[in-house]
Structures
1.
Amino acid sequence: MDRAGLRRDLHALIAECAPDLIGDLPDDSPLITSGVVESAALLSVALWVEGQLGGEIDITSFDLVAEWDSIGGILDFVERHAPAAAGAARRGS
């Protein structure tokens, strides 16, 4: 799926978890530090990321606020850790 499709899906998930959210959320809007995404919603985001990556992730192995405090950050994380990106990186080595 392309980044725009991933963004739509992620935005829909966040909107579902934060029903008071009005309108479109810019990719750089803070999610965790603003309180838009709290613990239950963060679990949903983690499950969504795992679904995109095709496996489990250890959310204790990185700084959630630094990596996932925005839609853009979450999308960047998915793109960096996607199996196709990992294979391309190995082929380029």
2.
Amino acid sequence: MTQRVAVVGGGWAGLAAAVEACSRGHAVTLFEMSAQLGGRARKVDLGETIVDNGQHILIGAYLQTLALMRRLGVPVDEALLRTPLALVGPDGGGLVLPRGPAVPAFARAVLNNLHWSWRDRFSLLGAATGWALRGFRCAPRLSVAELCAGISPRVLEQLIEPLCVAALNTPAHEASAGVFLRVLKDALFSGAGSADLLLPRRHLSALLPEPAEHWLTQAGAELRLGQRVMSIAPGDEGWSVDGERFDAVVLAAPALEAARLARPHAAAWANAAEALRYQPIVTVYAQSLGSHLPRPMVALSSQPAQYVFDLGQLRAQPGWLAFVISGAQPWVDRGMEATALATLAQARDELEAHLGEPLSLRRALTEKRATFSCTPGLVRPSQRIAPGLVAAADYCAGPYPATLEGAVRSGLAAIDALSA
């Protein structure tokens, strides 16, 4: 039976929900307060070039996101550069997974890492074997740092901590070990290629928001950009959104905005959404014409940035480098000017051999609420709010941290919840 479905929020979760609802024959109206779709994963026009509001990566295990992109007509193999998982520094040292099934590939990568001692290598393999034997499960209150207490300090510093902050955007001593293990499980046990890095060769809006906008328009959905929803209310037959009747509503807005709308009807849900705490991500864009990094993505060993991306190799933006600072609250507290200067100094120190012309700052962008803090024992708001009212967001209860895959899965699951 065709229903009128309102989707409030046009990020990746809201777009996934809208596409799925349309695919099932529902009449969809999508409300987005911004003039642009994509939420926290979208393009930013700097005038001289287009960058993203944050440098996201995908992995091969992000099956729902990749399937949705294909459904929207995105040529995934062209839009994403697929490489084996490689956490490698400017000098070539680090962990590189060979191709093939992820578990033996991981073991070979660790054993072949000559930058680590045998004690380093066996401490990691021993810990990983224990995680696998326990089904990648652990006590809910355990942090990543506690989970990895038996791993050598060098492996913690060079692999676990940067991997944790990249996956959960939360420092290892604060991050949920349970969620960290779930990410590792899906990467290592979802089949060959599941741990592969998928680096965007196009701006983020071209990966999903723009194709979704075109697809939804062609499917007859109504997109209301630049329109903030002021209130929702239950009625005799469904819900009203700013006085307009719908059969069901999907709240795909940021947590605080969703809590504002839901509070009159589900105070406990609103309290859970408002209780979430956040971690910022800073992306520093710089340019050095003639620069060429040894890989499109390079791990850094000092602070503030953990990774740098060579946009000249990825997107034909010669000399442009994107430095990513995850778990960035200490740097946000210092201010953007200090953070940008520290990043440029770090780049000159670690990347000197790979830079061309003098490195210059182009833009520093901050997403202050980039992700929720993925801490041990965190209680996240449920997907179901009230009859005919569901949430779709990466912060909803689920096994994933705040990732693109988590957002897409939540959007698809929201329509399943309405159907049920």
3.
Amino acid sequence: MDQRPLALVTGASAGIGAEYARQLAARGHDVVLTARRRDRLEALATELRDTFAVETWVMPADLADASSIPQLLDQLNDLNRPFTTLVNNAGYALTGHYQDASWADQARFLKIMVEAVAELSHALLPAMQAQGHGRIINVASLAGIVPGSAGHTLYAASKAFLIKFSESLALENVNTGVRVQALCPGFTYSEFHDVSGTRQQMASLPRYMWMTAEAVVTESLDALDRQNSPIMLVSGRVNRLLTWLSRKLPYTTTVRIIARRSQQFRKRPEETQA
């Protein structure tokens, strides 16, 4: 009997990551779940086993720890199975302006948002190439496309990196059977804004600006199933319209619009507490 395809999902404890795990399991994938919160991962693993009758493995890891990825890769190698799908989803945002957080916090952020993505992709890609099939999904953001805003300073920069990284990696693998996607969602219902402390500000956005994690992930996986799958996938009609506008409007105009919106939705910690 052939083995089921195997997927690794980072940041799988909630939101988009957990939804990727569910939908991949529903499509017949065994799944390795990694994030910091073991209890959340164990609960999700049980759900996937009971609902979809797939194998799941829980491998908690703090991707900011320099030793975490080598240890995770050792665990993955012990499975003695090639991966067909890697979902680089782990991420968060540092609130406030750049100088509001210590360099240690900024370095930790870059380790998770940039270095971990590059390292895991580098480690799992060769086996995908060898088997002639694979998918790497890097969860970027609409923030990586439009001009940067004040606050969450490295967030948009890290997402822009993911887009460019995905584009180059995809072109390098045109003839290998490995597809690479930079998923660019906009506002998505998840714990993201609770963790970043901006839930109250975000609540004032109109409902049409929001998407569910289920809708975002479905669009991502459906796109990868198509022959001419785009490398950069902007999820949702509203977000695609915003992307189009950001490219058609004069750059100075777009920057002014982003500046006004960031004043409303990206306050510094001391302003939020006042």
